[in-house]
Amino acid sequence: MHNPVVAIVGATGAVGVEFLRCLEERKFPLGKLRLLASARSAGKTMTFKGEEITVEELTEDSFDGVDIALFSAGGGISRKYAPAAVKAGAVVIDNSSAFRMDPDVPLVIPEVNPEAAQANKGIIANPNCTTAITPLWPIHKKNHVKRLIASTYQSASGAGHSAMEELRESTRATLEGRDYRHSVLPHPYAFNLFSHNSPMDAESGYNEEELKMPREMHKIFKDPDIRVAATCVRVPVLRAHAEALTVEFENPITPDEVREILSTAPGVKVVDDREKNYFPMPKDSTGQGDILVGRIRYDTSDPSGKSIMMFVSGDQLLKGAALNAVQIAELLVTDAADKKLDQAASA
Ligand SMILES: NC(=O)c1ccc[n+]([C@@H]2O[C@H](COP(=O)([O-])OP(=O)(O)OC[C@H]3O[C@@H](n4cnc5c(N)ncnc54)[C@H](OP(=O)(O)O)[C@@H]3O)[C@@H](O)[C@H]2O)c1
């Protein structure tokens, strides 16, 4: 594929805006860019490389001539329109959870399994943001992850544009002593935190977000034996998620080894300054593609020396969504794909 025509479905959303930024900043070799959203946004304009592009209403006929369709408008829209895009000849890169566990759909993190993208049958899925910012692959290649306990601290941006607005508005109202009636998230958000707002499985007691992490990790790492349990929490941070991870490996491992492996891993930055008490923070990871990792230390509850604890923060609008999808699109573009596969093989 050379200079593809790219369509963004959900261009006006929190992820959509980042798609435009990533395509521009990474100098993606575009033929043409089409912006699609709901009827509410049709006719609005958005700026790309200094030019105004008019947003069109998404319909089943939107994909004529489109080579790559980046979907980010929710699972229902993906289920309804991705087949039309594939039928029109486009490769769909989907940010929703609609197709992630479909055995015919590769689930791709370019730093982990870039080769899977080439085996697509028209749709490639982007992982959930919490899975995408869990940087264990470089360590797993050397010393298998056997068990992961994750606690997440997920920002408003993970729930879209309207949740970010709810956090801003409810914080302002609380500070000014005004009442605020929340409508986007299920609980008061300002100066509060609560269990992730995805549907709860009454039998297991896990919410949907917590169930995604093991499923997706097994598929991407091609290792169904990794035991994973997560507690996912929405925190009143505007943008970028964080996670506390406790990881048990197959063999003993030291914090220094983990630090060394991660310090040369693509897409990861070690921020681990014990003297200054400076570790990964959403404030720092916001706006950058790298996942920040720090607080790398022994899990003192495991005397075997096989368990490590760490704290990560990543901008899930980027690595958890738009950036990862654009990196996948780069794998589909001739030349760029060969280069990325070579880099992955030699990493
Ligand atoms: N936020 C994240 O960190 C994240 C991470 C991974 C995956 N995702 C996935 O990406 C999706 C979008 O997330 P977001 O945070 O960008 O949400 P958002 O800010 O609420 O944006 C939603 C986008 O979808 C469009 N849309 C809604 N209904 C539509 C319809 N009937 N037809 C066409 N377009 C429609 C909206 O267009 P209008 O402006 O016209 O309403 C808007 O562009 C999520 O549902 C999720 O599946 C999000």
Provide structural commentary.
The chain has 347 residues and is α/β, with parallel strands linked by helices. Helix content is 31%, strand content 23%. It is built from eleven helices and 14 strands. Helix 1 packs across helix 10. It is globular, with a radius of gyration of 20 Å. The two termini are 25 Å apart. The mean pLDDT is 96. The structure holds NADP nicotinamide-adenine-dinucleotide phosphate (NAP). NADP nicotinamide-adenine-dinucleotide phosphate binds next to helix 1, helix 2, helix 6 and helix 10.
Question: Which helices and strands, and how do they pair?
Answer:
Elements: E1 5-9, H1 14-25, E2 32-37, E3 45-48, E4 51-57, E5 68-71, H2 75-87, E6 91-94, H3 114-118, E7 123-125, H4 129-132, H5 137-140, E8 145-154, H6 161-175, E9 194-195, H7 208-221, E10 227-234, E11 241-249, H8 255-263, E12 268-270, H9 282-285, E13 291-298, E14 307-314, H10 318-332, H11 336-346
Parallel strand pairs: 1-2, 1-5, 2-4, 5-6, 6-7, 8-10, 12-13
Antiparallel strand pairs: 3-4, 8-11, 9-10, 11-14, 13-14
Bound molecules: NADP nicotinamide-adenine-dinucleotide phosphate.
Give the tags.
binds NADP nicotinamide-adenine-dinucleotide phosphate, 347 residues, seven-stranded mixed beta sheet, globular, alpha/beta
